[in-house]
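Reply to dn_fold:

You asked what the input looked like. This is it:
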Amino acid sequence: MKRVLFLGNSFTYYNDLPAVFAQLCEKMGMYVSVSSITKGGASLREFLNEENQIAIQLQQELLKSWDVVVLQEQSFRPIGNSEAFLTAAEEIGSKFPASQLFFYQTWAYRDCSQKLQEKELSYAEMHEGLKRSYYEAATRCGGTVVPVGDLFCRIWMQGSPLDLYRQDDFHPSLMGTYLAACSFVAEVFNINPHDLPDIEGIPTESASLLREVAAQGKIS
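and this is what came back:
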């Protein structure tokens, strides 16, 4: 059984990504024990501030043994303050073997949304900025990128009607979380996402299309 720890914020806890990941694993006969430490809007730097509750929780979890540790940064920080993201990722990453580290590459805000326009970036520019920072973090720490942002971008490029966002235009819908979970199972266990099961709440045809995208993996 693999023990998996998720560190992040609302992009992790919306729709309970760790639970969806565990559900898919269990249905495939791959049993995992998942835990998470999350806080809305949290940056990785907050996990290092000893006065912050999530940092206290992390110190407690460091006493346990983990097979996989997932790091997820605040949604814009890898672009807005990339060096702060990278240094925090390195500091947290140094507490675990490189082989255990998985970086949850997140996605650009919905194309043409007010939230994206406020950043004065196009969808492609935000996606590329996030991707660049997450891959740099993985390079520095020796970890693995889970290319969820690439999968969101692939669906955007295809003009697919699959809606990966909630009405706020940046948090994931259940489809978005399912797509992320499929990518995590594929990366952690090195299996083809085509083989993964449906979950309740997503039509079979949509789930199949999402798995097809997940199987295509990262965008070069």
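The first helix runs from residue 10 to 13.
Hope that clears it up.
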